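User: My collaborator sent over this chain with a note saying "see what the structure looks like." That's all I know about it. Can you take a look?
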Amino acid sequence: MLDLKDLQFLTALARQKHFARAAEECGVSQPAFSMRIAKLEEHLETKIVHRGNRFQGLTPDGESIVRHALQILEDVKRLETEFSAEPGDVTGVLSLAVIPTATALAAKTVIRLREANPGITVRVKTMNSLAILHGLEAGTYDAGITYTDSANSESAIHSFLTVMPIDDEEYVLLVPAQMVDDDKTEITWKEAGALPLCLLEPGMQNRHIIDTVFQDVGTRPRVVAELSGLTAGVVMAIQGAAATVVPKVLVENTGAPRSVRILPLVEPEVHKSLSLVTADRGPALRTVQALKEVLR
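Assistant: Without extra context I'll predict from the sequence alone. Here is the result:
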């Protein structure tokens, strides 16, 4: 009979695409890891991995086995979660991946989820939208918060993804007070583009959205720093070095010191839909069901 650890090893290899890294994730030596995969191939009487001097990908049978393995491991996780708690209680660990601009929304969501379900522990991981969707496909994360456009484009390809719109992202400019007039109550995107800006790095969906807006208004922004998250940009604004574009929900929940101004961005006013994305491979984990209930 197959051992669940065999399936865990195989899914680790599918995620890492590298024998040494997968072995390290699983806490065993590479020779022991490779032998375990070879034994699994022998047991199933099929070739799972293309081998050479290094990992060269999964065979078609290997890809099919990985899909089955992910489903089995998810079912086991669901079984453990369902019956480790008292009736009516929802407990366990929920792994939630979010895009950088949705961290404030994620924090609010975690608070509400924990208020309703004190037995749930949430692990929040920040990454770009594509990595979130790949992580859901690989079974690394239970749920993700990303842009609805990105989620819908992927769900058209991967039918197992469920997309649930939950909020709209609006943008404001967090700008050092000395960079704008005291009586200014809003700022156009064109005006913002003339200021020194720190933005998320190219390749992130939020940066693509912002670049498109600047292009549409006919200006090229003065970008002085490119970041993988919002925190550094907020600090740079507070220190008077540059302005930054942030979601309105972030400053609504954290506030801002007197050294900065919060100005709505207009002409145009930009709204981007955010969605909760989950993998629909059968009955949902109780933790995921609880998360959906809170967001509804």
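A starting point for your reply to your collaborator: The chain is about 45% helix and 25% strand.
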